[in-house]
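Translate sequence into structure tokens.
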Amino acid sequence: MIAVVRALVRAEPGAARFELGRQPLWCGPDSGSGLAHSCDLSTGQPVVTGSYLAGGSGAQLLTAGGVDLGELIETQPWGPELRQAVHAAETELDWPVRVEFVIEHGRAHIVSTTRASLHGAALLRAVATRYERGRLTPGQAASLVEPVDVEHARSMAVPSLELPVAARGLGVSPGIASGTVVFSAAEAVAARAEGEQPVLVLTESRPADLPGLLAATAVVTERGGLTSHAAVVARGLGLPAVAALVDGVLDADAKTLHTTRGDTVRAGDLVTVDGRTGVIHLGGRKQSSTKRRAALELPGWLDDALSALPGITVRVNADTGADAAAGRALGAGGVGLCRIEHMFLGERHQVLQRVLMARPGPDMTEDLATLHTLLRTEITDVLAAMDGLPVTIRLLDPPRHEFLPDLTELSLTTEATGALADRDRLDITRRLHEHNPMLGVRGVRMGVLLPTLTAVQIKALAQATLALRRDGRDPRPELLVPMVSAPAELDFVRGILDDVCAHLGTSPAEAGISLGAMIETPRAALLARSIARRADSLSLGTNDLTALVWGLSRDDAEKYLLPAYQDMGLIAESPFARLDVEAVGTLARQVAEEARAVHPDITLGVCGEQAADAAAVRFFTEAGFDHISCAPPRVPLARLAAARAALARRAADVHPMEAGR
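Result follows.
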């Protein structure tokens, strides 16, 4: 009441206006209370909706509910009067409205009128209408819409799944799909060929399983986490995926999944996978369409609005020309991460396996030549798709063991066959075996131990770049060195880059190939100043940096440890799901400050699972990074988050005291 009185006597221009009116304290037979909206709150369609309680007060309406106003308003004598009042209120506020009203002796009386709180499709429609009529600027339109509204509006409405739960795990790629269970990549490929919708269930996926992932309609892995192989590939493909099962045990030999609820899921059973909640349901509805879930797209008006706004550049993670083209169509400003190892998925992994296990000689030379030809073709496609935009090509990064034979399987095979070739492969695999490969020979370390492998990758990149230039194209490659811990490692790779270019009759500068380092070890972050002196760009790898800062296994922690910590209140959320601003963020800010101090023009990027989250986008914008990179389906939402972050930062610069409240 005090606020009302103050508003009534306030003389400032633009102050809120209040009017005092009479409201019935009770309602007789011809009276009642109601709540009306000027649009459908689900779709935004302009129609009067709400509820009405005859003979009841507003408080009773809220507690007991009422009848549907949409149908009642057409039959009551006070209907036209109320409809006119609702429309007038929307015109006055220039926004869909929420109207509280009472009916007294057959007449409608407005109690209060406020702007309706809209979300999802309804919000997008309201903003679009006003933007297209010129009543909102691009900045105002973007500031009214949050990424979650776009995601909810554009995703297919999924009815409540009234299906029994078979198992739960970690949702690592959103979406819902039903299909028949298969327990191997080969079975998934065969099922797809027969017109089925296979749900691929594995202990964990490996590069050789790519054909099965491509054929699947959904993926479930007993192990893994948000950054596991299956999770990364599934998000790139737009597949629903669940990992790190907490109440399911896979028996791969028997081709069954046993759950703690006593259920047994067998090959051919119909299940539904919810990749957002991490739940596998028994049963479902077979899908007739064989089309993969389409990548999220922004409404045209919002896409146009964002193109006129500033913001940190959003690049796409793309390992093929098709991925790059898809990202570009969604508004990506380049490729922030092209992973060479993803060019060796499926059957191709055998080529890389032979190189890693070969002894110097003709066989190794032949395998390196095959690898070079394959890489040159794939890199050419990516550069061509992003012609005129930057493309970050990362040297081989994953631990070596991912491309080696399984030691246990190979041991059993050798024992059964006794073949000399199998014994030789087993000896090599044992020699290369590591107890903790994620902290072993991976990234630049593998390239240092096998420099010919590094040279072949760089040669393929250089030749692809030069060939496109001769064709009049504008490739802009950025070579990225992963898992750097010592500045000298970057010097080592630069030496190989110089030598390769010299043999091709050019130089890195003439070829337009820049060299960057990935900051994903704490030591690299602490030595950012020294590394920046040697680099043209730095890319913060949040996945591994988070794992090493926390001392956690990326694939194991999210199954039991982190959920238990969340349940006990020790942490609010998984650091692999949401950027750990307190620790990882502190290192990120330090990296940016140290790098800029010695190399003001250095390009600073971010790639990793948390990078595209709206809060992370705001953080990296404020920290001064130039771009973030994410999977194709997340590019539109990241672009929106980037524009909103830039607008918020600009508002804070103009009104610093108000922004800090």
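Note: DSSP finds 28 helices and 24 strands in the chain.
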